[in-house]
Amino acid sequence: MRILVQEDAFDLGAETEAFTKAQETAGAVVTFTGIVRNNAEGTLKTMRIEHYPGMTEKALTKIAQEASERWDISDTLVIHRHGDMAPGERIMMVATASKHRVHAFEAAEFLMDFLKSRAPFWKKEITADDAEWVAAKDSDEDALNRW
Question: Cα–chain-centroid distance for residue 82?
Fold first, then answer.
């Protein structure tokens, strides 16, 4: 299990390749990458993501351990960025490995739902005219509640 919370961009290809190469007993690797989405008006300049160092890593480790207990996965990778990012930049990556694809898919989806709804990150959308904190969405909570 590897949990990284960092300001710097990550190389998706290199991270995926390294994670996959380390899986000697897995039959499936599932990856997901979240990117900064522009707002409906197309005016987003920056997405600012803040967190509390230490607390964030602890929460991500705990949820990755829970995923390992709930599904038969052999490895997990979670990378989440903080700081200022422009539309199109990568925010996060989740990778899971398992002998069987169903476990890898479900564990990855569980981790993604947690990251969206419960992980201790705060997002602010900054446009040329305004800055606004992103509120939690009912649909994100509903997705997490199914687990």
Answer: 11
